[in-house]
Automatic annotation (TrEMBL):
It comes from the Eukaryota. Residues 1-21 form the signal peptide. This is chitinase. Its EC number is 3.2.1.14. It comes from Cadophora malorum. GO terms for molecular function: chitin binding; endochitinase activity. GO terms for biological process: chitin catabolic process; polysaccharide catabolic process. The lineage of its organism: Eukaryota, Fungi, Dikarya, Ascomycota, Pezizomycotina. The chain crosses the membrane at residues 430-451. It holds the Pfam family Glyco_hydro_18.
């Protein structure tokens, strides 16, 4: 026999893990020390030769994933996905079960599933080196800017994203720079309009991939752009490479200048320019490379070179995880905040950030009151103690900006983004629904169990024979309610089972609720 007083608690124990949904496991933002963003670019081509999927990202160490890249129609301005197979269809290293309705799979489907179980924000990066040539035309007209913004926002609401990253490399003159400001203004306006249409208002973020070269950033109207941006991703790398004339080896991501040919550019000068032209330092997110730039047929840093190395995937560029190469030694220049490897036999020099440089840059971020760190790009990192991402995050400490993301997309064209049951996220989108459901079950339990207990006590006190089997009748009702509970629970478990994006073992979490039931001494089968 159950005690009536136990019933509300039991119902709450059963429903809380479901109705609080994914939000129950989200990290709370440390409001006393919430400073640093940790953003990593994820490229949609990573799923092919690299075999690196969104589920391989170190999401516990990231606040943002910048998904690269969407394309732009150079005439109309419409923003569209650049690889539908990778973006919305590919299995991404998981078995894909057949489901009814329109389902978001691919990298973006996997990222949506991941972000529901934490505070990770996913932004769609538009442009990049390949597609940036398509910005200028649409940005020059009101019609082009409107379609750019509306189509980009459509992707946000359909794909379950938290914002947009504009990656225009680069406006070539003041006219294009002014058009960029207008483009950002229109995009910010339409993001806010979409937010206002939601049940719960959410601030969708807008960021910009910012140049670190003087000839590029001096063209931009930084103060005018800044009013529409949440933060700037400063691309503080590619200071040196095979394109240099004259052909002189150099550091590709150094913090400070040596005043000679080895440091044609430096990060501090770039940051100083931005902050002196209307950009708050805490909105600047410092970009770091997870790759190295190669120079061959050279005698050292700051000297001439004849060619570039073979690279990991392209000429002259090596993944960080393949460095240093056999036969090479690493040189760390703390004064410059830079490092490189050197192979005297092959006469090859590769400029890249080591763990020591990454940690030094993290300390500089803190001392300069910058807004965090960004990496290009995530697939090239090492695992474990040699990971650049992990070491920088550790150096930044516990002041990471884990602000809540958005999982409420009622207008999505995809069932598993729009429908919380399909996405196995009961309650995160519909908390009132779950509250009412739990309250109803609790009330029914209390009513039937109270009558059941009352009848039993009456029979015992008055030694009355239960001629009409009243006790058994109420007990049958109790059993019926419990079986309904169990059926509902089984439905949830089956939902988790068919959900191919059950990245965080929600099936096992829900199964533990059954165990919790039984540990409380409830035998309802």
């Amino acid at each position: 026999m159950w005690s009536t007083l136990k019933l509300p608690a039991i119902a709450v124990l059963c429903f809380v893990p479901w109705c609080s949904g994914i939000r129950e496991s989200k990290r709370q933002e440390n409001t006393s020390c919430s400073k640093y963003r940790t953003a990593a670019y994820y490229a949609n081509w990573d799923i092919y030769q690299r075999k690196f999927f969104p589920k391989d990202l170190p999401v516990d160490q990231l606040t943002h994933v910048l998904y690269a890249f969407a394309n732009i129609n150079s005439i109309t301005g419409q923003v569209f996905l650049s690889d539908l197979e990778a973006d919305t269809s590919h299995e991404c290293g998981e078995q894909t079960a057949v489901q009814t309705g329109a389902q978001l799979y691919g990298c973006l489907g996997q990222l949506y599933s991941i972000k529901k179980s934490g505070n990770l924000k996913v932004l769609l990066s538009i442009g990049g080196a390949t597609y940036s040539q398509n910005f200028a035309g649409p940005a020059s007209s009101e019609q082009g800017r409107n379609l750019f913004a509306s189509s980009a926002v459509d992707l946000v609401k359909n794909l379950g994203l938290d914002g947009l990253d504009v990656n225009w490399e680069y406006p070539v003159d003041e006219v294009e720079a002014a058009n960029l400001v207008s483009l950002l203004k229109e995009t910010r306006k339409q993001l806010d309009q979409y937010s206002n249409s939601l049940r719960t208002k959410y601030h969708f973020e807008l960021t910009f991939a910012a140049p670190a070269g003087p000839s590029k950033y001096r063209i931009l109207d930084l103060a005018a752009m800044d009013q529409y941006l949440d933060f700037w991703n400063l691309m503080a790398y590619d200071y040196a490479g095979g394109w240099l004339v004259p052909k002189t080896t150099g550091h590709q991501a150094n913090l400070f200048s040596a005043g000679d040919a080895s440091t044609p550019f430096d990060t501090k000068s770039s940051v100083d320019y931005y902050t002196s032209h209307g950009v708050a330092s805490n909105k600047i997110v410092l970009g770091m490379p997870i790759y190295g730039r190669s120079f061959t047929k050279t005698t050292g840093i700051g000297h001439s070179f004849g060619a570039v190395g073979n690279g990991t995937w392209e000429k002259g560029v090596y993944d960080y995880k393949s460095l240093p190469m056999d036969g090479s030694s690493e040189i760390y220049d703390e004064k410059l905040g830079a490092s490189y490897s050197w192979d005297p036999t092959k006469q090859e020099l590769i400029s890249y950030d080591t763990v020591e440089v990454g940690r030094q840059k993290a300390r500089w971020i803190k001392s300069s009151n910058l807004g965090g760190v960004m990496w290009w790009e995530s697939s090239a990192d090492k695992k474990g103690r040699d990971s650049l991402i992990e070491n920088v995050v550790l150096e930044l400490g516990d002041c990471i900006r884990h602000a809540a993301n958005n999982v409420d997309f009622p207008d999505s064209s995809y069932d598993n983004v729009r429908n919380p049951l399909v996405t196995a996220s009961i309650g995160s989108e519909y908390p009132l629904y779950c509250t009412y459901l739990a309250t109803t079950f609790m009330a029914i339990f209390v009513i039937f169990n109270t009558f059941n207990t009352l009848m039993l006590n009456t029979f015992i006190i008055f030694n009355t024979f239960d001629t009409f089997n009243t006790f058994d009748t109420f007990n049958t009702f109790n059993t019926l309610i419990l079986n309904t509970f169990d059926t509902f629970h089984t439905l949830i478990l089956n939902t988790f089972t068919i959900n191919t994006f059950d990245t965080f073992n929600r099936f096992n979490i829900s199964n533990r609720v059954n165990i919790r039931f039984r540990n409380l001494g409830i035998n309802y089968l």
